[in-house]
Amino acid sequence: MDEQAFRAVYDATAKPLSRYIVRVCGKQDVADDLLQECYFRLLRSKRADMPLADARPYLFRIASNLLHDRWRRGQEISLEDTAEQAVEVHPEKRMDAERMLQGLKPRARQLLWLAYVEEMTHREIAAVTGLNVLSIRILLQRARREAQVLLESRGTEHA
Amino acid sequence: MPEKTEQPIRRALEQLNAATDVTVPTAGQVWSRSQFRLAYRPRRNAGASPFGMLLAGLYVFALVLWTTWSGWSSIGLLTMVAFAAVAACVFARSVTRSDRS
Question: Do A23 and B20 touch (CB under 8 A)?
Answer without folding.
Answer: yes
